[in-house]
Amino acid sequence: MIAPDAQSVLPDRRRLRGRLPSRALWDDSLMSSREKPAMPALSLRPSTGAAEYPALVAIWRSAVEATHDFLADAHRHEIESHLQSDYFPAVTLSVAELDGQPVGFSGALDGNLEMLFVDAAHRGGGIGTALLGHAITEHGVTEVDVNEQNVSAAGFYAHRGFEVVGRSETDEAGRPYPLLHLRLKGPS
Length: 188
Fold this sequence. Notes:
Layout: H1 6-9, H2 13-16, H3 23-26, E1 42-46, H4 53-67, H5 73-87, E2 92-98, E3 101-109, E4 112-118, H6 127-139, E5 143-147, H7 151-159, E6 162-168, E7 179-184
Parallel strand pairs: 4-5
Antiparallel strand pairs: 1-2, 2-3, 3-4, 5-7, 6-7
């Protein structure tokens, strides 16, 4: 299958006329809603509690392995050991599901986004944006701390209206991972 923008990078489209699939096969803007393949519906819901914590830990692990290559194994294991017992119960958890399966979650507390993780297999599909929007509108989130080394996360929040308002040399547990303190910009 050729991507929608593939023709713009082909060296000579005239040579390939008749050999490329019809534009309607790859440009879904030309398809009627009946012809488009069904996309799984994303739903957001409150966490059901401790019974689903193992699934959330699996999402956390997948996301951290994909985005936190700077995190030492010992620190990753230490954090993971506290997720179910300490961190999850301390926040208001929201879970993102596709076809009834958890694929991401966020945790908010007192206007702070304490955690937002999306399973690595589902990154880039709008799940993080949906969770963040939900946290802002439903839980009053206006602040988040992000690991400075997690450049993609810092960019994600900056693109969605957060700005750096401070920095710490270590994380909240004193580990050597600088944090950027971000705040949602108010209306201009």
